[in-house]
Amino acid sequence: MSIDKLDQSTSKYEANFPLSRLPILSSVGTIAFNVFNKFYFHHVAIEGRDHIVELDKLGEQGTIITGNHPSIAATITLFSALLNASRTVPPDKRHLVMPHALAKQELFFEPLGTVLCAAGQIPTDRAHGGTVYSPAKSILKQGGTMVIYPEGTCSDDPLKYPEPATAQGYIANRTKHRPEDPKAIEEAVADALKNKINGRYKYGMAQLAIATGARVVPVATVIDSVKHGANVNIRFGEAITAEVDQARLSTKQQRSFTSEIMLTIAEMMADMRGEKLPDEVRRQILAG
User: Fold this and answer.
1) Which of 53, 139, 266, 281 has a CA-to-CA distance to 96 between 20 and 30 Å?
2) Tens-digit pLDDT profile for residues 27-70
3) Which domains can be identified in the chain, with CATH numbers?
4) Phi and psi of 100, rounded to 5°?
5) What is the pLDDT of residues 176-235, one digit of tens each?
6) pLDDT in tens, 85-137
7) Regarding beta strands 231-236 and 215-223, do their DSSP bridges make them parallel or antiparallel, or are they unpaired?
8) Could you write out the three-class secondary structure of 176-245?
9) How far apart are CA 151 and CA 123, in angstroms?
10) Is residue 205 within 8 Å of residue 148, measured between CB atoms?
11) Dihedral (C-alpha) 265, 258, 64, 138: value to the nearest 10 degrees?
């Protein structure tokens, strides 16, 4: 599918603003996220910040931060790391490191929707993902930073490697607190169908990287629990650029590049855990 065919108009929250507006919220966001980390997690460790703030590349090309998705709390910690990293670069470049993300459209109710929009977050209808490409491309072409999770949803098991989400796992995760509630099961099944949870990674990261020439920085997040008091370790890896001819873009190429990035993340996780990546996990990721 041509990238240009994915450029569709979005809702009133379309992110067609200059990136220079965003630092207004950076201080508040940094403080809030740092406070959350202090009280929610027992220990937070961040490695590889230098891979985010390569000054010679900031502004020349956009950056896509791509990682595994163990929990919402871990995502807040990732955003905190990016906001803190933005404070280490010259003031005129800080807005280039501030994170933007694709957030499910259900979060954009008022007044939260206005706040999320002002912070540069993009509402996503996961059943019709093409509607996010115009604002996402705009951000990257301005040299900004996007956070994208190819898993498409939080892992059904946050301790697992970043395997493609399956409908069965998605439904089990959504109903784990109400496993025998018919309404909860029905809603989870409907959402799995709507969001196209089918055992494949989402290829939006690859499409955007190829369309804009953005560098992709893999990030591995390892947590030992999803409960309060857990330990979280985040490692940013070296940037990777897609070597694909946009004019000959194919689903196979998107899948291959996505799997390459996710395999890099899984290998980083294995190294952080001091273990070898299981062959079965490697095969599942390459098939994603």
Assistant:
1) 266
2) 777 778 888 888 889 899 999 988 888 766 776 789 999 999 88
3) 3-11+28-164+200-286 (3.40.1130.10)
4) -115, 150
5) 767 778 787 777 777 766 666 666 788 889 989 988 899 999 999 999 887 888 899 999
6) 888 888 888 878 888 887 767 666 677 676 676 666 777 765 555 556 778 88
7) antiparallel
8) CCCCCCHHHHHHHHHHHHHCCCCCCCCCHHHHHHHHHCCEEEEEEEEECCCCCCCEEEEEECCCECCCCC
9) 17
10) yes
11) -170
Determine the residue type at 197: I
Q: Which residue has the tokens 């998705």?
A: 69
Tokens of 187: 């809603």
